[in-house]
Amino acid sequence: MKLLLKFNIIFLLLAGTGLALVAHVAYRFLMQNAQAEVLQQAKLMMESARATRDYTSVELKPLLKNVAGHENQFIPQTVPAYGATQSFNLLRKRYPDYTYKEAALNPTNPRDRAADFEADIINTFRNHADQTEIIGERPTPSGQSLYLAHPIMVKPDCLECHDTPADAPKAMLNTYGPANGFGWKAGEVNAAQIVSVPTAVPIAIADKAYSTLVTYLVITFGLTLLAIDAALYFVVIRPVTRLSTMADRVSRGELDMEELPISGNDEIGALTSSFNRMFVTVVKALKMLNEEEE
């Protein structure tokens, strides 16, 4: 087996093992980074929804109260949850994988009623007042889903509509009736903002980054091997081959050769110098032997 082939096999085994370990660690890192990126995007979306809620409460709702006929005809744009949900639906045109819901334990609109897992999240916030964020995963019919949840606390101005049916606006009762959305208490957590995204999204991001990383690693690995092979050939194999060829010729009695050129002060250069001295010594010895025979 040639020296270069032996070296390549050893290099492939060692570097290949190192490449596999790096790839394994890199994939875990890329997955964590992709999940963090998705969660950061979800947080930005949630803050945008919260800003929409505040804008609706502070600026939009007072203006809409002056609309003629609002006493009898309910205007959904006065509801912060409606504004946040509608603005997020517009945002979903660019980010279709993300979903947003303001889930409540006792909502006025039945579509906002919390599912079982959402009710668990709200109750967790209610039982742990210092907890302001929950991140988790849950199974869905289409696969695992990653979610981010923030609590929604009942503010005093919410009680204008959600204290008792008797105090509620007539327009709201005309639309939703007196059965749901009442009995709220100021300061308690009654709902939660929940942004969900399939775990397939961060997985796809990580897979794409991983594929790119592995491609560049393999290319770098291949170019490095070629560079090392070239260096090994010119620095070691070619000089040793010359020594081997010359030694073979000397062993067959061919003495009309010039000494090998010496390049460098490394081990190969020292070996070549020693071989040249041996060659000169052999030539002198053979000449002396031939002269004695004559």
Secondary structure topology:
Layout: H1 3-64, H2 80-91, E1 99-104, H3 116-127, E2 134-140, E3 143-153, H4 159-162, H5 170-176, E4 189-198, H6 200-251, H7 267-293
Antiparallel strand pairs: 1-4, 2-3, 3-4
Helix pairs in contact: 1-2, 1-6, 6-7
Fold and architecture overview:
It is a single chain. With 294 residues, the chain is an alpha+beta fold. It folds into two domains: 6-199, no CATH class; 209-293, HAMP domain in histidine kinase (Helicase, Ruva Protein, domain 3), CATH 1.10.8. 60% of the residues lie in helices and 12% in strands. It has helices at 3-64, 80-91, 116-127, 159-162, 170-176, 200-251, 267-293, and strands spanning 99-104, 134-140, 143-153, 189-198. The protein has a four-stranded antiparallel β-sheet with strand order 1-4-3-2, with helices on both faces. It is rod-shaped. The chain starts with a helix and ends with a helix.
Distance between the termini: 45 Å
Strand content range: 5-15%
Structural class call reads alpha+beta
Percentage of residues assigned to helices: 55-70%
Unreliable stretches covering 5 or more consecutive residues: none
What is the alpha-carbon Rg in Å?
40 Å
Instruction: Please state how the strands of the largest beta sheet are arranged side by side.
Output: 1-4-3-2
**Number of H/I helices:** 7
Number of domains: 2
Give a quick summary of the entry:
The chain has helices spanning 3-64, 80-91, 116-127, 159-162, 170-176, 200-251, 267-293, and strands at 99-104, 134-140, 143-153, 189-198.
